[in-house]
Amino acid sequence: MPIALLSETLINQIAAGEVIERPASAAKELIENALDAGATRIEIATAGGGKTLLRVVDNGCGMGPDDLTLAVRRHCTSKLAGGLFDIRTLGFRGEALPSIGSVARLTIASRPSGSDHGAEIAVHGGAVQAVRPTPANHGTVVEVRDLFFATPARLKFMKTERAEAAAISEVVRRMAIAFPGVRFLLSGPDRTTLEFASTGDDRLERIAQVLGRDFRDNAIEIDAERDGVRLTGFAGVPTFNRGNSLQQYVFVNGRPVQDKLIFSALRGAYAETIPQGRFPVAVLSISIDPALVDVNVHPAKSDVRFRDPGLVRGLIVGAIRQALASEGDRASTLGARGFMNAFRPEPGRTGPAFGFGPRSSGHSVSGQGGSGGQAGSGGSGGGYGWGGTAAQAPAAPWAAERSPYRPLETSGRGFGEAAQAAFTAFAPSARVVSEPVDLATGGAETASAHHPLGAARAQLHENYIVAQTGDGLVIVDQHAAHERLVYENLRKGLSTKALPAQALLIPDIVDLAEDDCDRLMTHAEELSRLGLTIERFGPGAVAVRETPAMLGEIDAAGLIRQLADELAEWDTANGLAGRLEALAATMACHGSVRSGRRLRPEEMNALLRQMEATPGSGQCNHGRPTYIEIKLSDIERLFGRSG
Fold it and tell me: What distances in angstroms separate CA 63 from CA 33, 44, 59, 97, 486, one per listed residue?
């Protein structure tokens, strides 16, 4: 069959298959054009989920008749003056408008600044009509009707109108976060509107408009720079998490992206703080020299490639972990809100919903799930930690040396000593951590005024510590809190001391590609510090001499191959460290203060002081909150005392 030159219309329709996948894709391209034109107000109207009508109105610089003629031609653009290595606009390929015009009925009316009249051009199914004068305001109006009418097969793959409209809304949200100084207004056929008023330079206020006020109350600011790459934005505290990744927004030089490297780094940054199946909430913006990032990877421009991906990944992980270490001990405000909601009247009831009165069933008051312990275990009811009779004291005081699960008694490189110190933090000799507070003499007032977590007042159900703060009270899950303290001590040992290793009687020889062997040997010293000793064994193999003692009997060959794959993709060997930290989390859970153990006042205050000094103490190893804080003003509202 002879080779034939395709028609311009067919070429545009082929391109439309990549550029315009659905109505949301068309909306994204048109909004990007409006932003590149300098618009400060963008209005989007839809009907039929964008399939029947999609109209974008902006107050940008506008286009004259000559520009309109070129705008609907393939590969015509005003945005590549600096070439492909200096792209500073959202659009640059010159494909969007001709692609849309080839599969829909496209009309563009525009009036540039300084002009007395506007012009209009139409493209229906690839047929370009002549430019004609038309009345128009300053800016541009792009109207797309009957999307994919020229390619009816594509219509069969469209989702419901509601789903397509939701996808357009998500596009508008992402653009609104990226450009807080622009007003966005999205309207639908049911007269519903989604409006984001301009917030100027206040990016957090715009993020709150999109993600809700809860994020503003639970966000940690990120601002870090390394080797010319800057990372800014906001990350939620670990206990403020979601069941999917839809509330993770990433921008590179102002461009919304869906990059696997960045999202992988985000997961790694929260690896030890969020439970499996939950996702952090974050809005991150990366500023980088355009020459160091390739945005021309896919026609949709949602994927990017960095010249130094390891640098970007390391910056994201390091910056977020540092921020969590400095402020991550904050508990999510949702826990306190759930607690307060449990007291509010239910429909049809005049009294509070919490278990007062004739009702026998209790209500859960935790904000995001319970802790790792079992509240109220070992007793028949509640009671305070002292002076009460509702619960029986254990037969013997708790001691780490009698714990049935004690894998930390290791010899050699000093890790066991550091970990054991964490386990014995609440032995009688450990009360020097803070000065004991005598509740009878009023010393608690001083502690509550000077410490964020206040002074211990009571212990409920042998698991929940109630502390008084300067402006409210705090309820602490003692097992979850101590579990986190022990885990942080174990992690400190992992990061500061070489770990114990067990020598293999017969070295395990692992055959690998020569490149994989080279990469592994580059990280041999780092792996040795984690207890994994390897040596080169010929051009295509490595010999495993020692494995981490903490892991016991393992598949050394499988571990080496996993590390080799990780090094080939990310140039990092975090897999072994991740396994060790996961084991440390298990050990911390088994070795921490259990639910059902009655604590003395000085022990409870020692726990509070250690929580204040420990990064990430706001959540346990499973990502659940360790405490909730309730303001005195909220309590007063419950009793009608507020003005």
Answer: 12, 19, 11, 14, 64
Considering the domain architecture, whether residues 18 and 120 belong to the same structural domain is answered as yes
Q: Is 458 helix (H, G, I), strand (E, B) or coil?
A: strand
What's the rounded Cα separation, in Å, for the pair 203 and 201? 6
Q: What is the Cα–Cα distance from 617 to 625, expressed in whole angstroms?
A: 9
Q: In the chain, how many domains are there?
A: 4
Same-domain pairing of 431 and 285: no
Helix, strand, coil % over all residues of the chain, rounded to 5: 40, 20, 40
For residue 140, give the H/E element and its range: strand 139-145
Q: Is it the case that residue 352 has pLDDT exceeding 70?
A: no
CB 119 within 8 A of CB 140: no
- Residue 108, strand partner residues: 121, 142
Question: Structure pTM?
Answer: 0.65
Range of the structural domain that residue 89 is part of: 8-196
**225 within 8 A of 322, measured Cβ to Cβ:** no
pLDDT tens-digit readout, 598-643? 888 998 999 999 888 887 788 777 667 888 888 888 888 888 776 5
In tens, the pLDDT along 564-579 reads 887 776 666 666 666 6
Q: What angle do CA 635, 636, 637 make, to 5 degrees?
A: 90
DSSP string, 484-551: HHHHHHHHHHHHHSPPPEEEEEEEEEEE--HHHHHHHHHTHHHHHHTT-EEEE-STTEEEEEEEEGGG
pLDDT at 30: 95
